[in-house]
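[User] At your convenience, examine this fold.
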Amino acid sequence: MTKPGSQMVWLCSPADVVRCARKRRPDSHKGENGVALVVGGCNELVGAPALGAQAALASLRTGIDLVRVMAPEKVAWVINSFSPDLITLKLRGSHLGERHVREVLAEAAKADAVLIGPGMGLDPETRSFVRRVLPKIRKPLIVDADALKAAKGLKFKGPALITPHAKEFEAFTGKKLPKELSKQIKAVEAAAKKHRCVVLLKGRFDVVSDGKTTKVNKTGNAGMTVGGTGDVLAGICLGLAASKNGLLDVACAAAYLNGRAGDILHAVKGYTFIASDFLIVIPRLLKKWGFK
C-alpha cells in the first residue's frame, strides 16, 4: 500500500484475480459463461490479424465460451488461420468505417463485453467510426490501441475501461503524462473522473483507477515490451468483463495476471519470450487462483 498525497493507493495482488473467478453451473449451455466481441483490423497494417487474434485468444483463455472477431474481410480470413477456436465476422472493405456502425452495434448487443481497437489503424473513416460507435455501446467496453487515439477527449456513457500506454494516454486525454509515479497516479485519477471510465495505464508500474479507488500493479518486467503483450492484456480484460465482473476488478486482475505471467516467462526464457507464450501460462495461473 502506498499513499501519495491524501489518496490511499493499494497494490494489485492475486486476490484481485480470485475475485473475478466465476463458478459454472454443471448444466450450463454454450454462451452462458461469457460471449465476447473483438472489433479491429485493417488491410494496411500487416500485423493487424495477429493483434486481433492475440486479443481474442487471450480472452478465450480466461474461460469464457465464445469470442467473435469483426474485421475487414481480408484480415478476418487471416485471423481464421490462427486458430479454429476463433469465429470471424467479415466486413466489406479494407478498413472500418461509418458504413459498419450498424453491423457492429448489432453484434455488440449480443455480446457480454466488447473490445475495440486492435490493429484498427487510423484512416479518417475509421476515426469517424470509432467516435460514432463508442457512445452507443452499452455493454462493458474495452478500448485499446488506435481506438484510443481516435476517441480523443470522449466521455463514455456506458461502462468502459481504457488500456493506454503513456503515448496513448496523452493522445486520448490531450495532456502530457508526468514521469513520477505519484503524479501519474493523480493524472490517471483525474482522467478516470473526467472521461467516466476505468483507466489502466500500462507502464513500469501499471496504474488502475476509476477515479475513486486506485491501485498500482508491480508485476511485469522489461521483456514485456515485445509486440502483442498489450493485446494479450486487452484480451484478458475482455474475457473477465464478459464473465460479468466489474471493470475496476477486471483491470486490477488483468494487470496483475498479465504481469505475473510475464515474470514466470522471464524466469524460464529470459527476455526471449513472445506474446503467444502468455497463452500457455495464463490458464495455469487462473486455475491456481480459483478458475476451476
The two ends are 29 Å apart (CA to CA). The chain has a mean pLDDT of 95.
